[in-house]
Amino acid sequence: MKKANGIVLDKPGKPDYLTPASFRLIVLLETVSKILERLSALRLASAARSLGLLHPNQCGSLAGLGCFDAVATLTHEVRLLQAASFEVSTLFLDVKGGFDIVCANKLAMILTRGGVSAYLVAWIKSFLSKRQCRLIFQGAPKVFCPVGVGPPQGSPISPLLFVLYIASLHPTILQGLAIIYVDGLTITVGSDSVRSNIRALQYYFSIIQRQCADLGVAFSVPKTELIHWRTLKDCSDISFALIMINDMLFPPSQVVRWLGYWPTPTLHSSVHFLRRLALAKASFTTICQFSAAGKGLSSWCNRKLVFSAILPILTYGCDLFFPDAATLRKFDTFWHVVLRWTTNCFYTTALGALYREALLPPISSIGKHRRRSAAIRLVYTPSEFNPAMARIPESVPIWDQGCSADNHRFLLRGSTKAIHFTCSKSVNPVRDAFFFFFFCHMQGRSQGNMFLLLDEKDHTWLKKKHDDESR
């Protein structure tokens, strides 16, 4: 079960494909091996959480955590520091090599010191040793060769092993935050001036770099980015202060791509959604080649293509942000074109009939549904496992006391079996959490304040309602 086939895929957007760094190797493992690795990953994740081997701000590669949680945590921290009249800056770093840097002996030492069971450490050490792989591409010799690098990319346990290996890279920041999402590290600091932020970022980077030397970890220089956050009401001059990392100067960016989001210094959503619209149009152009208007696939098959290949690209990020009025009109125009292609209706068809015929709602309704679903998922996430949930004030009534912490892995799947309520039948926590957190989210976004912000009157009314129903 230690033999695997490696599929060589080219990375999109590279200037040339003359170097191995322009390709990605996906390992195809045996089915029985992947089942065993999945079971071991569940056991290791539970042990790592209970033993405190994972940092509270760790996102990604863990069940119940996603890009939404990482971006929501970052935006909350930025708005919180700006509310205290601080200048805020963030440095985006990317670990070079990814899974290949994991050393089996060092990882086994980290797990042993952390208190992981000896049998599990021995299994992981055996899993990472004496592996063989053969590359599958045109003209390649089909022979197995020994592999001496980290866990295979494609294994269910590889992301978790990588996260545990670099868990010590989280620095302690007094006024700021450090988030690691798989191989991406962000350092956010706040102070009275941008120059002070630059010095603080260089100081924390030097600390991380010394820790990286012990683990054999390095950062990819071309992927390093810097951004200085601003508020919409800030009338001061835009700061272009540079930062020097490894004898290289990095200017501040006006748009940063992180986890599929394109945040700007003012956290305005228009740039992000215009990029998503361009990607959706490119995907739609490709799909139209398979089925021209009036012929080709049936309307039901077209709807499946739209629902699976266009809608996720177009609405990515709607769970946290929402497009402004001008961007929403562009979304609606493109969405109407997609619906007419799906149903093969006339251009003059009424929009109400078009939505019903295509069985696809308007973009505004989809955005509201995504935000409500994200709010429900967040309210049932244990606060000790999710950095976004941990930043909700303690006075806010939540319903994670009735959830089983062992079943946090079901949160992203929407399974109702993972939720065990301890309240009476007269209380409907799903309904109350639904409206409460959706209202919190919309209230904070409409006023431009920090994440999940309520005014005092609404907070008092909702808390009293929750206490009455609990009694």
Descriptive overview:
The protein is an alpha+beta fold and 471 residues long. Helix content is 44%, strand content 12%. The chain is built from 14 helices and eleven strands. The strands form three sheets. It has a five-stranded mixed β-sheet with strand order 3-7-8-4-9. β7 and β8 form a beta hairpin. The longest helix has 22 residues. The termini are far apart. About 13% of the residues have low confidence.
Quick summary:
The protein has 471 residues and is an alpha+beta fold. The chain has helices at 31-51, 67-83, 104-114, 118-127, 158-165, 194-215, 270-288, 299-314, 325-343, 351-358, 363-379, 387-390, 429-447, 456-470; strands at residues 3-10, 23-28, 58-59, 87-94, 131-136, 145-147, 176-181, 184-191, 225-229, 243-245, 248-250.
Shape: globular
Number of helix segments? 14
Low-confidence stretches are 400-459
Which class do the helix and strand fractions yield? alpha+beta
Largest sheet data: 5 strands, mixed
Helix content: 40-55%
Overall average pLDDT: 80
| Topology pattern, helix = H, strand = E | EEHEHEHHEEHEEHEEEHHHHHHHH
Strand content: 5-15%
Distance between the termini: 56 Å
Computed CA radius of gyration, to the nearest angstrom: 24 Å
In which order are the strands of the major sheet placed?
3-7-8-4-9
Structure summary, number of beta strands: 11
